[in-house]
Input
Amino acid sequence: MQELLTLSLAEVHRKLQAREVSAIELTEAILTHISAVEPQVQAFITPTPELAREMARRAQARLDAGERSPLLGVPIALKDNLCTAGVRTTCASRILHNFVPPYDATVVARLREAGAIFVGKVNMDEFAMGSSTEFSAFHITRNPWDLTRAPGGSSGGSAAAVAAHMAYAALGSDTGGSIRQPAAFCGVVGLKPTYGRVSRYGLVAYASSLDQIGPLTKTVEDCALMLNAIAGKDPHDATSVDLPAPDYRAALVDDIKGIRLGIPQEFFEQGVQPEVAETVHQAIGLLESVGAQVQEVSLPMAEQSLAIYYILAPAECSSNLARYDGVRYGLRVGAERGHIGMMEATRAEGFGKEVIQRIIIGTYALSSGYYDAFYLKAQQGRTLLRQQFATVFQQVDALVCPTTPTPAFPLGALVDDPLAMKLADVLTIPVNLAGLPGLSVPCGFVNGLPVGLQIIGKPFDEATVLRIGYTWEQLACLRDELRLPTGLAI
Ligand code: GLN
Output
C-alpha cells in the first residue's frame, strides 16, 4: 500500500495500464490514506470522496476499453480557486464559502477529459494572497516535512497534498511565486508556465497580468505530463496564446551538454541563507560537470521587483475583487441596511485582513493624483525588468538560482511581520513580472528541510526548463529521500 502511494504519476499510470491495480482500488487506497494523514496535514478545504469514486468507475471503464491517456485513473487535487462545476470553490474566503460554480475552469475540464480523478479542493491563502497558507479563512495547513512549519503559499494545500501522497499531482496558481515557493518548501516539483501558455478561464482572478496556473508533482516527468494536459490556446481566455504546445514529455532528455546557464547574482543576495546558496551552488557545479556552460549574469532591476509587484498586484486585486458585492454570488450580510450598507457589511465581514489591506493599498495606488507616482512608475519598472531579462536571454538559455531565500519557516513566525512574509517571494516574483516560465525542483536539504532549485526560461520555452530540471533530478538522486517526508508516519 505504501509502495503504491509513494509512486510517481508516471509510475502509477504504468501500473494502471498493466492492470496491476484498478482505478477503483487506487482511489480507495488514496481515500484511506487521506483519512489517516489529513488530520495532521489539513491540506483540504473540500474533500470529494464520492466524486472521486464516481470518477474512478468511469476511468476504469475507459481503461478497460483500452484508452492509454497518462492521467487516466490518476487521483489529483485542485487548488480551491479553480472553478469546479457542482463542487464549491471558496478561494479560502468567507465571502465565497458557499459558492458552487456552474462551470469548470478550462484546466479542470481538460483534466476531466484526460480521465484524472478529483480527490478534492485544497487549501490556500485567501484569494491566493500570501506565502504560508496561514491566511486561509478556514484553517492552516502543515508542512509534511515538519508539522510545526508552514507548507508555503499560496498553493500550500496543493504542495502538502502531493508531498504527503494524498494526490499524485495537484494544480496550483502562481502570481508571485505561489506554485514554486510551496513546491520548494514541501520538496515537490512546481512549474509556473509562461504567461499565456495555460488558459486561466475559470481561475478566480487575483492579479490578471501575473496569474498563471501550473502543476505541482513528485517528479519533473509528471510535471511534463500535467503540462501536456493543460497547455494550449483556449477561446475562452484571450490571453492564452495560439502557439503549438510541444510534447513536453518527449522533451525530457537526460542531457544538457552545451546548454548555457546564467547565474543571476542578485538572486543569491537579498537575504538568501548561506546554506541555501551553498546547496544551489553545489547543484550548479554538478550541472556544469555534465556539460552545462555556466556564466554569471546580472539583472539589477530584480532588486526592485518586490516594490513593483506590491503596487501592481494590489492595484489589480482591488479591481478584480470589486465583484464581491453580496449581490451576484457568495456571502450577503446586512440585507436590511440598504444597498450600500449591505455591500459594506458583506465586504467587511467576508474578506480577511490581508485581503482588505491589499484592496486598500491598490485603491490608493490607482486613485487620481497618485496613479503616476505609483502605478505608472511600477509599470515602467516592470518594463525595464523585462528588458533586462530579454538582454540576458540573448546570452544564456536559462537561469538557475534558489527558489526561496530560506527553507520552510515555522507556523506563526511571520504572520505579524508582513515584510518578512513578502520576502519569501523575493526570488520568484521577478519571473511573474517578466511573464517567464519558472520551475522549482528539489535541490537538497538544509537542516532536514527541502530546498528548491529554480530554473527560469525564455518565454514559451518550458521544454528547456523541464529538460534541465529532469537532468538535475537524475543527477541529484533525491527521489528515495523525497518519498518519505519526515513529519509524517506513513
Ligand atoms: N505571496 C505573493 C502574494 O501574496 C504571491 C502569491 C501568489 O503567487 N499567488 O501576492
Q: What stands out?
A: The pocket of glutamine is lined by residues 128-131, 154, 174-178, 206, 313, 425 (CB under 6 Å). The chain has a mean pLDDT of 97. The CA atoms of residues 308 and 378 lie 5 Å apart.
